[in-house]
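tool_call: predict_structure(chain=1)
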Amino acid sequence: MHYAPDVATPPPALRRDAACCNAACRHAHACQATRGGAAELLAIRDIVERVGPFSDGDRLVQPEAPHLAAYAVLTGMAMTVRGGRIRAFHLPGELFALDITRQGLHTTSVVAVGKTWFCRFPRAATDALCEHDDAIASHLRDLRRQERRLATQGGDAPALARVASFLADLLVRRRQVEPDTTFIPLPMSRDDIGSYLGMSAATVTRMLARLRADGSLAVRNDGVDITDAAALAGHGLTA
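tool_result:
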């Protein structure tokens, strides 16, 4: 499945001052930008803007547009799209859109999944900070390499293993925000999940039904409850 060329721009969004980024944020402990509040990275909070709300399907950035900022999800979810296929889903606290071409352009589009607010890290301010702060510069380089690596992941493993590993990974990441949760919100469509995993929406639905039948999970309208994490892991790519 493929997405149409990225021609739309996101609607105007509200912005609030950087003072809103602080330890009181409910996702501060899961913030990738500060590694959960590491003292040597806290200076990055001073440059953050909040942007939103974006509605489902709104584009935050698009390919070949000037790279003016990186972003993190504050509330909601986002997905990265490149070459007509979804390459990543982003959860609260996760930093992305770090990659940049030599021409200073974005390489992907970022699309809101449901109502979403973002933290915006202006490029000019980030570059200026990195010039004088080796810890932040090194941390952002590591995150950029991680983003590139995740964007190129793929494979031809069995469909059940891909779906199980996808859910197991989402559960680990959700627990960065809610440590004891067993619920994984899935606001994206089955088509979106299929695009990411390289399979049809019908196959995604069938694999979820198989995982439900063996007791790994319970399917809800808004996501899945993991009822047996060990069984789910047993179906995954590392089993």
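agent: Residues 6 and 207 are 30 Å apart (CA to CA). Proceeding to next step.
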